[in-house]
Amino acid sequence: MRILKLTPAVEKNLLRARRERDREAEAVAAGIVADVRKRGDAALFAYTKKFDHFDLRRSGLWISQREISKATKEVSADFLRAIEHAARNIRRVAKKQLPRFWSRRVEPGVTISQFVRPIDSIGCYVPGGRFSLVSTLLMTAIPAQVAGVKNIIVVCPKPNAALLAAANFLGIQRIARIGGAQAIAALAYGTQSIPCVEKVFGPGNRFVTAAKQLVSCDCAIDLPAGPTEAVVLAPSTQPKFSNPKFIAADLLAQAEHAPDAGSFLVTTSRKLASAVQAEIASQLAQLPSDNPAHASIYKAGAILLAPSLAAACEFTNRFAPEHLSLPAYPASLIERICASGTIFLGPRSAQPLGDYISGSNHVLPTGGWARKRGGLSTVDFVKCISVQSIDRVGFARLATDAITLARSEGLFAHANAVAVRCNSTGGARS
Question: Is 173 helix (H, G, I), strand (E, B) or coil?
Answer without folding.
Answer: coil
